[in-house]
Structure to design on (281 residues):
């Protein structure tokens, strides 16, 4: 059963279309990763599917309903979103930030119930940040902060979690820490995870389903074997990749790569850079 899918959505900023006539089905209770070059529409697609921004035409359907017509609190009980650069933590403790995940369930004056406190404490324990409950979020390391934000998403008690580049600015150990936590949530609790990643080998290692975007369109969507191969990576990234096997997972991995000769990449990069000056994709 597919709970979440798009039908011919177009997303743009002003007159500039970033995502064009895109239709995709997101596998339920799996990890889906979106990959592609800078400016291809990865984050824009994520924002539209989670209703952070509006799409110009087409539909995003969740549980048989158009998300544009869904009540905000009902939608917040179904999907949680971890943005690319979470903000607004100044002066908050870890426990206070995680408690914000209970907002969709609050009534009246918004006081936390016993059930709310139980869920908050559970989320802190599952993500391994319970010991920081009374510590300022600003005092934590990057990896610790990222786990706190994931704890807030878990406290929201949604079955679907979206993450936009959750490993950005983290060192190698913290990147693995976050991705292994997401994998654990998927395998043990059946959470549907949809995330944007830049690292192709992370995408191959942790994803069940990969969507490769280029210039706002899907080049290929499928399992790791379908996407992480020389032909698709050449078309999407203009690289000549050497593909091998991860000795621990037996999944495909990019061993090394060169730029494809003869591609007018300089002009493409200038155009992408100019677009990103105007709009943060």
């Amino acid at each position: 059963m597919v709970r979440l899918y798009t039908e011919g959505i177009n997303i743009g900023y002003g007159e500039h279309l970033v995502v064009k006539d895109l239709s995709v089905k997101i596998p339920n209770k799996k990890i889906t990763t979106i990959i592609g070059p800078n400016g291809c529409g990865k984050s824009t697609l994520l924002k539209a599917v989670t209703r952070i921004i509006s799409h110009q035409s087409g539909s995003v359907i969740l549980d048989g309903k158009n998300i544009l017509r869904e009540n905000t609190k009902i939608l917040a009980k179904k999907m949680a979103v971890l943005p690319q650069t979470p903000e607004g933590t100044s002066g908050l403790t870890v426990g206070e930030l995680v408690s914000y995940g209970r907002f969709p369930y609050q009534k009246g004056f918004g006081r936390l119930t016993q059930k709310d406190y139980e869920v908050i404490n559970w989320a802190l324990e599952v993500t391994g940040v319970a010991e920081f409950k009374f510590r300022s979020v600003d005092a934590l390391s990057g990896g610790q902060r990222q786990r706190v934000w994931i704890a807030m998403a878990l406290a929201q008690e949604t079955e679907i979690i979206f993450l936009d580049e959750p490993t950005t600015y983290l060192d190698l150990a913290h990147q693995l820490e976050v991705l292994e936590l997401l994998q654990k949530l998927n395998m043990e609790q059946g959470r549907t995870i949809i995330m944007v990643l830049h690292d192709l080998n992370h995408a191959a290692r942790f994803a069940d389903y990969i969507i490769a975007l280029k210039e706002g369109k899907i080049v290929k969507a499928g399992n790791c074997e379908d996407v992480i191969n020389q032909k698709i990576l050449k078309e999407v990234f203009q690289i000549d990749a050497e593909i091998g096997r991860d000795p621990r997972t037996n999944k495909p991995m990019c061993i090394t790569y060169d730029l494809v000769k003869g591609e007018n990449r300089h002009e493409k990069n200038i155009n992408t850079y100019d677009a990103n000056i105007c709009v943060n994709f």
